[in-house]
Amino acid sequence: MDTKAYIESGVIESYVLGLASADEAAELELLCMQHADIKNAVDEFAALIEANAFNNAVTPPPTVKDKVMLALSEEFEKEKNKIVPVIPLHTGNTDAETVTVAPKPTWRYLAAASIILLVVSTALNFYFYSNYKTSNEKYVALLEERNSLQAKNDVNLTRLNDYEESMHIIQNPDVQKIDLPGIKGHENTFAAVYWDSKTKDVYLLPAKMDALPSDKQYQLWAIVDGKPVSAGLVEDCNGLCKMSNVPKASMFAITVEPKGGSQSPHLDAMVVAGAVKI
Predict the structure, then answer these.
(1) How far apart are CA 6 and CA 13, in angstroms?
(2) How do residues 9-63 score in pLDDT, each as one tens digit?
(3) Were both Cys, which of 98, 166, 222, 253 would link to 249 (CB 3.0–4.6 Å)?
(4) 175-275 has which fold?
(5) Any idea where the domains of the chain sit in the sequence?
């Protein structure tokens, strides 16, 4: 199993944050028992979330405690001064003797404790929810950043591979280079064709080619027995552009054609041309 790919898949983060499905959670817990690196990854991310929660703790407003304690104080003061009748049992006098007695405040204390627990519970719920929300937002942001970096890395890796392949083609002794300088009116334009004498594969390097309108496109032509033969449309590419295979040619040229190419070249739209050295 490729544990590195599994760790980078995002399942561990979803599991720790409580977002994983039951099947994903069961699979991860089983893999933790089989692979120490996966178990370590789970512990590390859980520790990271816990540290982040404490670093971003939200303290309940102090007014909450003051209001609760004030309400309890007023309630206890009422109970303290409450007048209740007491009837002595050792005499036959049924007249109530009025005395000041402090009743057992057991249920009041229980009520007070319940209120305090409610306040603490509310504060903790708010605390954990705030930290969860913050951690989840940071996790999503990190995940998006990782995906963006991964996409950029893939693009750069593709470019690097294309450049390396281009260098191998250019350095191949079987490949002939045909320079295509700009014709009159296009002196600052330049391209080069790399033609494999064995495979007859053709590669184009559009070194200095002006950008074209969206409805126009460059097209490469090979002059075969005095007639132009299309060698393909010039697309965006990294390094060398792979063109059509050309068995034989005496010359190569590039013209500007309508988007999608033409069956035959517009010679008045030629920009570069070069003869094949025999």
Answers:
(1) 11
(2) 888 877 877 777 888 888 888 888 888 888 888 888 777 766 665 665 555 556 6
(3) 222
(4) Immunoglobulin-like (2.60.40)
(5) 3-55, 62-154, 175-275
